[in-house]
Amino acid sequence: MNELLVLKNFQAGALALLVLIGSLVARRWMLRRLRPFPQIADGIATPSLLWCLVIGIDALLNFIELPVRATTIANYVVVSFLILSLTMVVSAVLIRVIQDYGERHNMPFAVAGLSRTLTRSVVFAVGLLVLLRFLGISITPVLATLGVGGLAVALALQDTLANFFAGVHILVERPIAVGDYVRLTEEEQGTVSDIGWRTTRLLTTANNIVVIPNKTITSGNLLNYSMPSKPVSVFIPIVLAHDADVNKASELAVKAALSTEGVASDPPPVFLADPGMTPTHLQFRLAFQVSQFLGSGLVRTAVLQKMLTAFQSEQITLPDPARLRGRQ
Fold this sequence. Notes:
Alpha-Beta Plaits, SH3 type barrels, five-stranded antiparallel β-sheet, elongated, single chain
């Protein structure tokens, strides 16, 4: 009798091993076919190994003789594991597909952290409902309980929900987007690195992160240096003496700007009267465009240095500092 049981168990193990090998072969074939879709292939590469192992275990449980209750529990555990793992894989793959699509088509909503949170929440909610349905748990009482509990949570988390809906408002209306350089105050300015479900993060020029609640952005004044386009105008004030050669100064200033890396040639730099003639001096400004606000200070400094060197070499006369102080 014992020998017969051992033989049956051996046969069951051999059959389960064959099922495992077959599932591994099917996995390899599937990954090869999914090579043109790296988002999906990378997302299921590791979990699919676990799936093959679970399939082998499930086959072993079906081949060997176990009590009905133990077999039922084991099947519930196996299927529940598959549902949860599939939910996690679908969530990860879907998030990556949405992000890649958003990067290719310049969609700020798709690359923001809030979109990842919403996608993950929806997929896990669906996966949980499927799992409850499989376990034979009625969904209607669960939804009713969630409704009552959700009202209580909403009352307790008013501030958090306000920031969440403010984040949705930011992504829909698009006053800012990931990669924009924005300014709320003197201390709160930088490049938007992420728009999350509760906060927005700014990367400052000092390589620090400023964390700002979403409702602060939607309820206050904000300056976006990247809208309507990233190129921005830069101005350098220029003061000259009354007897200075204005035409020569204009030529040298424009030439200094055009010879500086980072200054746009279209539209070309412009030498403007601002306001022009005053009792003590002539006042102008040099206007030019740079590709983006971040780094414009370095470009402005380089243009100013070149312009001052050219003025000195060409003996462009500057106003008497004493007269300027007397005017003040």
